[in-house]
Amino acid sequence: MEIQSPMKLKRLVVIGRHKKDRISDLPDAILLHILSMVPDGKQVVRTSVLGKRWRSLWMSVPMSIDFNFPQTENLVVTLDYLSSTLTELHYCKSCDKIPRFTIGGFRYEHCYAKYVDLWVSFATKVAKVEEFLLGLLSINDQTYDFPSYAFKNSLLKDLELRNCQLNPRTTVDWTNLSSLKIGYIDLTDDAMEKILSGSPNLKSLELDNFSGLQRLEINSVKLTQVMIESYYNDNDEIWLEIVAPHLQHLEVLELCSEIRIGQRNVPSLVTAVFRLNFNF
Fold first, then answer.
1. Same structural domain for residues 98 and 68?
2. Cα 16 from chain centroid?
3. Domain span at residue 198?
4. How many domains is the chain built from?
5. Of 73, 100, 242, 262, which residue is 20 to 30 A from 41 by alpha carbon distance?
6. CATH number for the domain including 148?
7. Is residue 4 part of a domain?
8. Where are the alpha helices (DSSP H) in 21-94?
9. Among 5, 40, 61, where does a domain finish?
10. Comparing 208 with 11, which gets the higher pLDDT?
11. What is the tens place of the pLDDT at every residue in 166-217?
Protein backbone atom coordinates (compact mmCIF):
# COMPACT_ATOMS: atom_id res chain seq x y z
CA MET A 1 0.00 0.00 0.00
CA GLU A 2 1.49 3.32 -1.12
CA ILE A 3 1.42 6.17 1.39
CA GLN A 4 1.12 9.62 -0.19
CA SER A 5 3.37 12.37 1.10
CA PRO A 6 1.67 15.44 2.62
CA MET A 7 3.01 17.58 -0.24
CA LYS A 8 1.57 15.27 -2.85
CA LEU A 9 -1.82 15.16 -1.09
CA LYS A 10 -1.92 18.94 -0.95
CA ARG A 11 -1.16 19.09 -4.67
CA LEU A 12 -4.04 16.65 -5.39
CA VAL A 13 -6.49 18.74 -3.36
CA VAL A 14 -5.54 21.91 -5.24
CA ILE A 15 -5.99 20.15 -8.56
CA GLY A 16 -9.38 18.83 -7.38
CA ARG A 17 -10.58 22.31 -6.46
CA HIS A 18 -9.94 23.59 -9.96
CA LYS A 19 -11.56 20.63 -11.64
CA LYS A 20 -14.63 21.53 -13.72
CA ASP A 21 -18.02 20.84 -12.08
CA ARG A 22 -19.67 18.78 -14.80
CA ILE A 23 -22.93 18.25 -12.92
CA SER A 24 -23.58 21.97 -12.50
CA ASP A 25 -23.04 22.43 -16.24
CA LEU A 26 -25.94 20.14 -17.10
CA PRO A 27 -29.11 21.74 -18.55
CA ASP A 28 -31.75 22.88 -16.07
CA ALA A 29 -34.21 20.26 -17.30
CA ILE A 30 -31.83 17.42 -16.38
CA LEU A 31 -30.93 18.91 -13.00
CA LEU A 32 -34.61 19.42 -12.16
CA HIS A 33 -35.30 15.81 -13.12
CA ILE A 34 -32.51 14.65 -10.80
CA LEU A 35 -33.84 16.77 -7.93
CA SER A 36 -37.39 15.54 -8.48
CA MET A 37 -36.19 12.00 -7.75
CA VAL A 38 -34.90 12.92 -4.28
CA PRO A 39 -37.57 11.56 -1.86
CA ASP A 40 -36.83 13.95 1.03
CA GLY A 41 -37.86 17.55 0.41
CA LYS A 42 -35.41 18.78 3.05
CA GLN A 43 -32.52 17.32 1.07
CA VAL A 44 -33.77 19.08 -2.06
CA VAL A 45 -33.73 22.42 -0.23
CA ARG A 46 -30.20 21.78 1.04
CA THR A 47 -28.86 21.60 -2.53
CA SER A 48 -29.07 25.40 -2.54
CA VAL A 49 -25.68 25.51 -0.76
CA LEU A 50 -23.91 23.65 -3.58
CA GLY A 51 -23.24 26.82 -5.53
CA LYS A 52 -24.67 29.81 -7.32
CA ARG A 53 -26.26 27.66 -10.01
CA TRP A 54 -28.16 25.66 -7.40
CA ARG A 55 -29.26 28.56 -5.20
CA SER A 56 -32.76 28.90 -6.63
CA LEU A 57 -33.00 25.79 -8.80
CA TRP A 58 -34.74 23.73 -6.10
CA MET A 59 -37.66 26.17 -6.03
CA SER A 60 -38.83 24.86 -9.41
CA VAL A 61 -39.07 21.25 -8.20
CA PRO A 62 -42.61 20.06 -7.33
CA MET A 63 -42.16 19.17 -3.68
CA SER A 64 -44.59 17.55 -1.26
CA ILE A 65 -44.57 18.25 2.47
CA ASP A 66 -44.97 15.40 4.94
CA PHE A 67 -45.02 15.94 8.70
CA ASN A 68 -45.07 12.62 10.55
CA PHE A 69 -45.01 13.39 14.25
CA PRO A 70 -43.10 11.09 16.62
CA GLN A 71 -45.41 9.12 18.90
CA THR A 72 -44.33 10.47 22.25
CA GLU A 73 -45.78 12.30 25.23
CA ASN A 74 -42.49 14.13 25.76
CA LEU A 75 -43.33 17.84 25.58
CA VAL A 76 -39.81 18.88 24.58
CA VAL A 77 -39.76 16.48 21.63
CA THR A 78 -43.19 17.68 20.50
CA LEU A 79 -42.25 21.37 20.70
CA ASP A 80 -38.99 20.74 18.84
CA TYR A 81 -40.86 19.02 16.03
CA LEU A 82 -43.46 21.79 15.92
CA SER A 83 -40.65 24.33 15.60
CA SER A 84 -39.10 22.34 12.77
CA THR A 85 -42.39 22.44 10.84
CA LEU A 86 -42.36 26.24 10.93
CA THR A 87 -38.79 26.31 9.63
CA GLU A 88 -39.62 23.95 6.79
CA LEU A 89 -42.68 25.94 5.77
CA HIS A 90 -40.58 29.11 5.75
CA TYR A 91 -38.35 27.62 3.05
CA CYS A 92 -41.12 25.79 1.20
CA LYS A 93 -43.14 28.96 0.62
CA SER A 94 -40.62 29.79 -2.13
CA CYS A 95 -41.48 26.62 -4.08
CA ASP A 96 -43.32 27.04 -7.36
CA LYS A 97 -45.52 23.99 -6.79
CA ILE A 98 -46.44 21.92 -3.74
CA PRO A 99 -48.95 19.27 -4.83
CA ARG A 100 -49.37 17.48 -1.49
CA PHE A 101 -49.28 18.40 2.20
CA THR A 102 -49.79 15.73 4.86
CA ILE A 103 -49.75 15.89 8.66
CA GLY A 104 -49.94 12.59 10.50
CA GLY A 105 -49.93 11.46 14.10
CA PHE A 106 -50.10 14.87 15.78
CA ARG A 107 -51.53 14.63 19.30
CA TYR A 108 -53.87 17.61 19.18
CA GLU A 109 -54.79 19.81 22.12
CA HIS A 110 -56.43 23.24 21.97
CA CYS A 111 -53.19 24.90 23.07
CA TYR A 112 -51.67 23.85 19.72
CA ALA A 113 -54.47 25.34 17.60
CA LYS A 114 -52.25 28.17 16.31
CA TYR A 115 -49.88 25.64 14.73
CA VAL A 116 -52.69 23.76 13.01
CA ASP A 117 -54.16 27.09 11.85
CA LEU A 118 -50.83 27.88 10.22
CA TRP A 119 -50.66 24.49 8.47
CA VAL A 120 -54.19 24.81 7.11
CA SER A 121 -53.55 28.38 5.97
CA PHE A 122 -50.30 27.38 4.28
CA ALA A 123 -51.91 24.43 2.51
CA THR A 124 -54.98 26.28 1.25
CA LYS A 125 -53.76 29.85 0.77
CA VAL A 126 -49.99 29.74 0.17
CA ALA A 127 -49.20 26.38 -1.39
CA LYS A 128 -52.69 25.86 -2.83
CA VAL A 129 -52.21 22.11 -2.70
CA GLU A 130 -54.31 19.57 -4.56
CA GLU A 131 -54.00 16.92 -1.85
CA PHE A 132 -54.29 17.72 1.86
CA LEU A 133 -54.30 15.27 4.76
CA LEU A 134 -54.78 16.59 8.28
CA GLY A 135 -54.56 13.56 10.54
CA LEU A 136 -54.92 14.61 14.17
CA LEU A 137 -55.06 12.41 17.26
CA SER A 138 -57.54 13.63 19.86
CA ILE A 139 -56.33 14.13 23.43
CA ASN A 140 -59.13 14.25 26.03
CA ASP A 141 -61.77 14.52 23.26
CA GLN A 142 -60.33 17.80 21.99
CA THR A 143 -61.00 18.36 18.29
CA TYR A 144 -59.78 21.04 15.91
CA ASP A 145 -62.33 23.52 14.55
CA PHE A 146 -61.75 23.53 10.79
CA PRO A 147 -61.67 27.22 9.71
CA SER A 148 -64.45 28.74 7.61
CA TYR A 149 -62.14 30.03 4.86
CA ALA A 150 -60.92 26.49 4.14
CA PHE A 151 -64.40 25.52 2.94
CA LYS A 152 -63.77 27.79 -0.06
CA ASN A 153 -61.15 26.10 -2.20
CA SER A 154 -61.50 25.27 -5.88
CA LEU A 155 -58.06 23.60 -6.20
CA LEU A 156 -58.37 20.73 -3.72
CA LYS A 157 -58.83 17.30 -5.29
CA ASP A 158 -58.17 14.94 -2.38
CA LEU A 159 -58.98 15.84 1.22
CA GLU A 160 -58.70 13.78 4.39
CA LEU A 161 -59.59 15.17 7.82
CA ARG A 162 -59.37 13.36 11.15
CA ASN A 163 -60.53 14.79 14.47
CA CYS A 164 -61.62 18.03 12.84
CA GLN A 165 -64.95 19.60 13.67
CA LEU A 166 -66.75 20.60 10.46
CA ASN A 167 -69.28 23.41 10.87
CA PRO A 168 -69.51 25.36 7.59
CA ARG A 169 -71.46 28.51 8.38
CA THR A 170 -72.12 29.34 4.73
CA THR A 171 -72.00 27.43 1.47
CA VAL A 172 -69.08 25.12 0.71
CA ASP A 173 -67.02 25.55 -2.47
CA TRP A 174 -64.92 22.46 -3.12
CA THR A 175 -65.51 22.52 -6.85
CA ASN A 176 -62.75 20.12 -7.93
CA LEU A 177 -62.79 17.78 -4.95
CA SER A 178 -62.98 14.16 -6.13
CA SER A 179 -62.13 12.23 -2.95
CA LEU A 180 -63.16 13.06 0.63
CA LYS A 181 -62.30 11.11 3.78
CA ILE A 182 -63.63 12.22 7.16
CA GLY A 183 -62.84 10.41 10.39
CA TYR A 184 -63.27 10.62 14.15
CA ILE A 185 -65.93 13.29 14.06
CA ASP A 186 -69.41 14.18 15.25
CA LEU A 187 -71.27 15.07 12.05
CA THR A 188 -74.56 16.90 11.63
CA ASP A 189 -77.02 16.49 8.78
CA ASP A 190 -76.72 20.19 7.95
CA ALA A 191 -72.92 20.10 7.68
CA MET A 192 -72.98 16.97 5.52
CA GLU A 193 -75.60 18.47 3.23
CA LYS A 194 -73.53 21.63 2.71
CA ILE A 195 -70.37 19.62 2.04
CA LEU A 196 -72.03 17.38 -0.54
CA SER A 197 -73.83 20.21 -2.32
CA GLY A 198 -70.56 22.17 -2.48
CA SER A 199 -68.60 19.25 -3.94
CA PRO A 200 -70.23 18.64 -7.36
CA ASN A 201 -67.33 16.54 -8.70
CA LEU A 202 -66.97 14.26 -5.69
CA LYS A 203 -66.58 10.61 -6.73
CA SER A 204 -65.60 8.86 -3.51
CA LEU A 205 -66.70 9.46 0.10
CA GLU A 206 -65.34 7.69 3.19
CA LEU A 207 -66.77 8.20 6.67
CA ASP A 208 -64.81 6.59 9.49
CA ASN A 209 -65.53 6.50 13.25
CA PHE A 210 -68.28 9.09 13.21
CA SER A 211 -71.54 9.83 14.99
CA GLY A 212 -74.43 12.27 14.90
CA LEU A 213 -75.38 11.88 11.24
CA GLN A 214 -78.95 10.64 10.76
CA ARG A 215 -79.54 11.08 7.05
CA LEU A 216 -76.96 10.71 4.29
CA GLU A 217 -78.66 11.97 1.14
CA ILE A 218 -76.58 11.92 -2.04
CA ASN A 219 -78.11 13.31 -5.22
CA SER A 220 -74.94 13.73 -7.28
CA VAL A 221 -74.59 11.53 -10.37
CA LYS A 222 -70.79 11.49 -9.98
CA LEU A 223 -70.60 10.31 -6.37
CA THR A 224 -70.87 6.55 -6.89
CA GLN A 225 -68.64 5.12 -4.11
CA VAL A 226 -69.28 5.35 -0.37
CA MET A 227 -67.50 3.59 2.48
CA ILE A 228 -68.81 3.72 6.05
CA GLU A 229 -66.67 2.39 8.87
CA SER A 230 -67.59 2.39 12.56
CA TYR A 231 -70.74 4.49 12.77
CA TYR A 232 -71.91 4.77 16.36
CA ASN A 233 -74.84 6.34 18.16
CA ASP A 234 -75.68 6.19 21.87
CA ASN A 235 -79.41 6.62 21.27
CA ASP A 236 -81.09 3.37 20.14
CA GLU A 237 -83.98 5.35 18.69
CA ILE A 238 -81.71 7.14 16.21
CA TRP A 239 -80.30 5.52 13.08
CA LEU A 240 -78.55 6.48 9.86
CA GLU A 241 -80.66 6.41 6.72
CA ILE A 242 -78.93 6.37 3.34
CA VAL A 243 -80.68 7.84 0.30
CA ALA A 244 -78.49 7.76 -2.80
CA PRO A 245 -80.23 7.06 -6.13
CA HIS A 246 -76.97 7.05 -8.14
CA LEU A 247 -74.79 5.14 -5.69
CA GLN A 248 -73.13 2.09 -7.26
CA HIS A 249 -70.67 0.81 -4.65
CA LEU A 250 -71.24 0.72 -0.89
CA GLU A 251 -69.05 -0.68 1.90
CA VAL A 252 -70.10 -0.89 5.54
CA LEU A 253 -67.32 -2.04 7.87
CA GLU A 254 -66.56 -2.78 11.52
CA LEU A 255 -68.89 -2.08 14.46
CA CYS A 256 -71.85 0.05 13.38
CA SER A 257 -75.05 1.26 14.97
CA GLU A 258 -78.28 0.86 13.02
CA ILE A 259 -78.07 1.83 9.36
CA ARG A 260 -81.14 1.69 7.13
CA ILE A 261 -80.72 1.17 3.41
CA GLY A 262 -84.00 0.72 1.56
CA GLN A 263 -83.84 -0.82 -1.91
CA ARG A 264 -85.84 2.07 -3.33
CA ASN A 265 -83.29 4.50 -1.87
CA VAL A 266 -80.33 2.95 -3.73
CA PRO A 267 -81.77 1.71 -7.07
CA SER A 268 -78.42 1.96 -8.91
CA LEU A 269 -76.45 -0.10 -6.38
CA VAL A 270 -74.22 -2.68 -8.10
CA THR A 271 -72.04 -3.95 -5.25
CA ALA A 272 -72.54 -3.88 -1.49
CA VAL A 273 -69.94 -5.16 0.97
CA PHE A 274 -70.71 -5.68 4.66
CA ARG A 275 -67.90 -6.71 7.01
CA LEU A 276 -69.22 -6.09 10.49
CA ASN A 277 -68.14 -6.80 14.04
CA PHE A 278 -71.00 -7.54 16.41
CA ASN A 279 -70.70 -6.60 20.07
CA PHE A 280 -73.17 -8.63 22.15
1. yes
2. 46
3. 62-276
4. 2
5. 73
6. 3.80.10
7. no
8. 28-36, 41-46, 75-92
9. 61
10. 208
11. 999 999 999 999 999 999 999 999 999 999 999 999 999 999 999 999 999 9
